[in-house]
Structure formats: C-alpha cells, structure tokens
Design brief:
about 350 residues; Endonuclease III, domain 1; 2 domains; 7 strands; alpha+beta
Length: about 350
C-alpha cells in the first residue's frame, strides 16, 4: 500500500493541479444544480442537508429538507424538540439513527458552543454522528476551510482521474483519498472545489455510464485516456444480506382500536413505532397465537394474509407476511405497547415497512 501511495503522489506531482482546480470550479459555478441548502452558507443548513443526503438521493431529500427546516428552523428549535417529533419529520427517509444523532449533536452545540456550529475540526468531529466526510463538508462549504470531504462520489471521480485501482471499500484507501484531496483542494475556494467534486460525481462521472464527452475535466482524466473509465472504481462486493421472516399483525380490539408498539431505544429503527412482529426464525407459525399470548397477554384470532412486504436494510432483509387479527380476550401486558384509534396513527413515526401497512386500516 505504501509503494502504491508513493506512486500515486508522484502522479499528482505531474498533475496540473492549478488548471484542474480552475476547470472544476468554473464548471461548478456555471452548471451547479439549484438546491435549497445552497441558498447560503449557514452551517446548520449545511449540516442538516449533509446528514439527510447520506445514503439518500437528492430528489428524495429536497422536500424533506424544506419541511424539516420549516419545523426546526434553528439549532435551538431542533435541540429543544421532542424526539418523536424529530423522528416523525424524518419518517420515510430511513437510517433513523442519523436523525437521533443529529439532534443529540445539536443539543451539545447549544449547551457547550453557545449555539454556534464549531469551526474547529477536532470539536466538530467529536460531535455525535459527525464523521470525517460530514466534518469536511461543513468546514469547507460553510466555513471555507480547505478540508477534504470524501464520500463514494468523490472516490469514484478521483479513482478515474488518477487511475487508482485500489478497493474503495477499504478504510485505508479512503484515508488515502482524503490525503490526496488535501493536496488537490483549492485553498482559495474550497467550498466550490469540494461541491464541484460531489456535483461531478452526481451529474457526469456517474457509476455505470459516465458522460465523459460532457466532462469539464476530461483532459485531466487518466482513466478516460486509457479507456478504463467504466472499470473504475474498484469496490469489493458486500456480503449477501440475511433474510429474516416475520409475521406482522394488524390487530384490532372490539372498539376498532389498533395495537402498536414502540421499538427499543437502541438498535435498528430505535424509538420508532410498529405493528407487532412475530419472528418466524424463533416461533413456529402454528404456535403464533400461544406465543402472542405469552408476549402480550392477549388472546387473538388471526385472519387472512393482507399483504407481503419485503424491506431491505444494508445488512438484512425483512420478509413480512401481514395478517389481519382480532382480540378475543386477555389484557394487554407489554411495555411500550398500546391500542390507539385509527385516526391518531398518523401522529406516530413509523418506518417505511410499517407505513405500507397503514393503508389497510
């Protein structure tokens, strides 16, 4: 790896850095998309947008960003908000730990930094949920600091520009790219430079069919010169996701109220709400009613299957058979579970998989 890095740094020494910066920045100012978080350099708005954009498409984020900023227009508003309201505003974006970590970090900024997002790399990087990429994005875009903001888009662009065939899934390789950006970045306009790299990866230097004929830095690109642009970047395939079967129950009592429960405070989809789920890896389908009585204290009668839902997370896939059910007796004895009227269900934040069940009520 060290020899490889030395070779890459030698290539950079032969790279026309000054012209590359100018070409990239000029293109960004001419062609950048009009996005709501680019209206100004407010660090809070930049921060919220970068957290939302992690693992989520720009077109999906835009309406969420507008609604979130209307509801929580300042750091102080988000810091003092009820977490359930924050999760409700985030409902549908997925990766809900992003929202919880964002609120925790904002509370720390209000408590310890007088409500000002830190411009010190160490202090900013110590905040909950602020990794190297988010830190670099905030510092460069909001504060014009020449800090690298390296994500998959940026690694793809640089892999092609510099003809780097290292596996970008490896942490050591990402560190190498951060080092490369420190050498390449414009100190005069780091905000436009970093956003230019991101925009180039999103609009031109796309994963499968890069639009090389439209690329503003094509003449700098070694992969294009060698005809290898579609072979890069190198990324090792992830492990196959584990499939987990569930029965999800849409249970109503005699008054027509619906049973929901709050997920644990830690782990996947923490603090969101769901309809009861029976893990079929642990429970025989034929003993479902007995299991449910033992867990919830309710005798139920299951009806027809009303839907099948597959929901994919980064590491697992939920395979959910949704069944209608009625309460026949017993008394609810389950922490953080209760019956609510159908009209009030929309007050609770549900993950996408369980939002799909709501339409059956």
């Amino acid at each position: 790896m060290k020899n490889k890095e030395a070779h890459i740094h030698t290539m950079i020494d032969q790279f026309d850095r000054s012209q590359f910066r100018q070409d990239l920045i000029d293109w960004f100012y001419a062609e950048q998309r009009i996005l709501p978080w680019r209206e100004n350099q407010d660090p809070y708005r930049v921060w919220v947008s970068e957290i939302m954009l992690q693992q989520t498409q720009v077109d999906t984020v835009i309406p969420y960003f507008h609604r979130f900023m209307e509801k929580f227009p300042t750091l102080e508003a988000l810091a003092s908000a009820d977490q359930q309201d924050v999760l409700k505003a985030w409902e549908g974006l997925g990766y809900y730990s992003r929202a919880r970590n964002l609120q925790t970090a904002v509370q720390e900024v209000v408590a310890h930094y007088d409500g000002k997002v830190p411009d010190d790399p160490r202090h900013l990087g110590n905040l909950k949920g602020v990794g190297p990429y988010t830190k670099g994005a905030i510092l460069s875009i909001a504060y014009d600091r020449p800090e690298p903001a390296v994500d998959g888009n940026v690694m793809r662009v640089l892999s092609r520009l510099l003809l780097i065939d290292e596996d970008i899934a490896k942490p050591a390789v990402k560190k190498m790219f951060e080092s490369l950006v420190r050498e390449l970045i414009s100190t005069d306009d780091p905000s436009a430079f970093n956003q230019g790299l991101m925009e180039l990866g999103a609009m031109v230097c796309t994963p499968k069919t890069p639009a090389c004929m439209l690329c503003p830095v094509q003449h700098h690109c070694r992969a294009f010169a060698e005809g290898m642009e579609t072979e890069l970047p190198v990324k090792k395939k992830q492990k196959k996701q584990k499939r987990i079967p569930y029965i999800s129950l849409l249970i109503k009592d005699k008054q027509g109220n619906v049973l929901i429960e709050k997920r644990p405070e830690e782990g996947l989809l923490a603090n969101l709400w769901q309809f009861p789920m029976v893990p079929l890896l642990d429970v025989d389908k034929h003993h479902l009613n007995n299991w449910f009585y033992g867990e919830y204290g309710l005798h139920i009668k299951t009806g027809e299957q009303i839907e099948h839902i597959n929901h994919t997370f980064s590491h697992i896939i939920w395979e959910m058979d949704v069944l209608d059910a009625r309460v026949m007796g017993g008394a609810l004895d389950k922490q953080h579970a209760w019956f609510v009227s159908p009209d009030s269900l929309h007050d609770y934040p549900f993950p996408v998989s369980h939002q799909k069940i709501l339409k059956h009520i």
